[in-house]
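User: Please look over both lines:
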Amino acid sequence: MEIKTRVLSTIEAMTSAFHQGDIDAIMRAYEPGAVVVGEPGTPVQGDGSLRAMFAGFVAAKAHFTFEGHEVIAAGDIALHLTPWKMTGVAPDGSPIAGAGLSVAVLRRQADGGWLMVIDDPYGDAILQSAAQNRTHNELAP
């Protein structure tokens, strides 16, 4: 099986698990010790912390869609890039939405499958911050 297909099967399994509210299945997409950025600039690590963070997305009925996938591999390491959109429901019942560029690093496992080691769904946050800073500096007297 092609590397891109295997990497995408991990991403698809994780996404399906989110949509089903299955935190155990979400966790199976990650290596022990994986780091996930729950919000820009805030990496989360550790089983309990990751489960709590994922529970928040499940409670919000987060639904993710992707706009294409790019996979670049070198040996047992792969980089997965995808623009994403998310819709859900806030605790007060109001709709919520988000979008970004997911940047994930995966490692090939002994069984040939791939698991995420680093998952930053806000990989474009630094670009957005730089653009805001440029705009602010251009508008400053």
Summary: The chain has four helices and seven strands.
